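Workshop exercise sheet. Pairs work together: one partner reads the sequence aloud, the other fills in the structure field after running the prediction. Swap roles for the next sheet.
Pair: D.N. / O.F.
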Amino acid sequence: MNNLIDPSESSFNDGTVPETRSANMLEDSWIETLGWAVGAICSLSMMFGGVVPYIPQYLHIRRSENPEGFSLYVCLVLLLANSLRILFWFGHWFELPLLFQSIVMNIAMMMMISLCVSIRNRGQLGHNREHVFTDFDYDHFWEWTDFQSYVEFMLTFSTMGCLLMYIFIDSPLFVETVGFISVLTEALLAVPQFYRNFITKSTFGMSRQMVYMWFFGDTFKTLYFWFREAPMQFFVCGCLQICIDIAVLAQCFLYRKKNSHLIN
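Structure field:
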């Protein structure tokens, strides 16, 4: 009898047999790997997904040689919002994918501005008066005729922002205010396009694919903010952004008759 194997010796202290314990460990490892993969995909989507809606608009402008349907103030809003978000990160750290998203978006918007300015300059007569940033002419703000002026403005804005953040970085009120202004500005992203459509009573020249991607991208982004427990102002302003996207989508259907007339 002493040679018989005690069943308890072939199991772990928790009562599970080796085969069951191994299967559980394998399942836990698979679930952990799947969770990591989903998280990595979501992070990459946040980093580069924000640029995707502007690809159809960029290609449309390049193909048609006509940038008039797109409001450059959309680029201004995004540049200001993402520059402020980068400054906010230094005072209140948040997830790196959101920081990288802001850097990628700023690069994309400068590329969009460069394309629009170059096309406009080719279409204008050489005798037209140039407007540059150093003129400090309020009437032509963000309607400059050279790309360098847009770069100079953003460098000036970023330098002033860095200086203020360096001085007041120990003030939670200042840092959180910068974060709120950043996400609020981004939430108002579609307002310039909405206003332009409202004034012209047309969405001709505006890429509908861009607006659709705005809506789905902002919905995904807002849910990402919620589940990843980002600062609350990110989620609140994300909801506002979705509402404005819906308003622009409504304009596509409201002005569809005039769009058809212009196309014909």
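Discussion prompt: The chain is about 70% helix and 0% strand. What would you look at next?
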